[in-house]
Amino acid sequence: MAKLDIIVAGNPVLRLKAKEVERIDKKTVRLLNDMAETMYAADGVGLAAPQVGVSRRIVVIDVGEGLIELINPVITKREGSVVGGEGCLSVPNFEGEVERAEYIECEFFDRKGKRMKLASDGILAIAVQHELDHLDGILFIDKATVLTPKETVPVGIE
Ligand SMILES: [Zn+2]
C-alpha cells in the first residue's frame, strides 16, 4: 500500500464529473487500498478518488464503524433533513454547516464486483453524501450555509 497525495480546492480535478469504473481490476483494488491508507493517515472519515487526483467513481469511508468501499455508488433514496458541521481534507482551512438528507439508501459495487446496498443515517449518511458530491465535482463549501475559517496552529520555525 502507498499513501497518496491529497489535492486541495483550486485543482481542476476536484471539479470534474468522475467517470464510472467499468472494470474492477487489480488497479482498482490497489487504489482502494491506497485510498484507505491515505484517509487513515490524514485522520479523515472519508475520501473520494478525485481527492487523490483520480477522476473515477470510487469512495472509501470509515466513521468509526469499519471501512466501507463504494464503487460506482448511487443514492437511491433520501429522507428528512439535518444540518451538521463538515470539513474536508481537500478544503483544509474551512469548516462549515451543510444541510443533508437525514436518511439515505445507496447502491454500489464492492471490490469483488458484487452489487451492494447500504442504508444509513447519522454521521455515516452525511459522510456518504459528502463523498458522493466529490464524484460530481461538488465541494461542501458550495453548499455550506455557514463557513468558518479553521484555527490553524502556527508551525514553529527551527
Ligand atoms: Zn471532502
TrEMBL record:
RNA-binding recorded as keyword: no
Transmembrane segments: none
Gene Ontology MF, one: peptide deformylase activity
Catalytic residues (positions): E131
Cofactors, names only: Fe(2+)
GO process terms (BP): translation
EC number: 3.5.1.88
Binding note for cofactor: Binds 1 Fe(2+) ion.
Keywords: Hydrolase, Iron, Metal-binding, Protein biosynthesis
Binding positions (Fe cation): C88, H130, H134
Catalytic activity: N-terminal N-formyl-L-methionyl-[peptide] + H2O = N-terminal L-methionyl-[peptide] + formate
Family matches, as InterPro entries: Peptide_deformylase, Peptide_deformylase_sf
Enzyme class: hydrolase
Function of the molecule: Removes the formyl group from the N-terminal Met of newly synthesized proteins. Requires at least a dipeptide for an efficient rate of reaction. N-terminal L-methionine is a prerequisite for activity but the enzyme has broad specificity at other positions.
HAMAP family noted in UniProt: Pep_deformylase
Family recorded in the similarity comment: Belongs to the polypeptide deformylase family.
NCBIfam families: pept_deformyl, PRK00150.1-3
Protein name in the entry: Peptide deformylase
Organism from which the protein derives: Phascolarctobacterium faecium
